[in-house]
């Protein structure tokens, strides 16, 4: 992966991540963020091609959600990814398609780049705020400040 850390005239920094064939998306993102001590960021764009797509989606409307975990072999076009990474925990939604179907849900570890992927992250200032995800009684994690 190649990373470009761009400073803007405002206090917000932008990070562009350029993934190589065979790299694992979430594993590579989190590894880079940990190495550079960037705990919180907003994924504002994520596109590319995938060899393997791992994700989960909600199956019910009950108070405690039931999820289905899926891993598919590609090729896939990753058309859109967005979400938050809080305290190194990703919560990213995506839209991807193969030659027959379109898929959407929560991107999971083990998704692998086919040819290229490009992600843009807005670095969130964590010097004044310590954000974490806390699991609630209905098995859903909410962002809180500690």
Automatic annotation (TrEMBL):
The keyword rRNA-binding does not apply. InterPro entries: PPC_dom. Keywords: DNA-binding. This is DNA-binding protein. The lineage of its organism: Bacteria, Pseudomonadati, Dictyoglomota, Dictyoglomia, Dictyoglomales. CDD domains: DUF296 (cd11378). Residues 9-146 form the PPC domain. The keyword Nuclease does not apply. It comes from Dictyoglomus thermophilum. One of its GO terms (molecular function) is DNA binding.
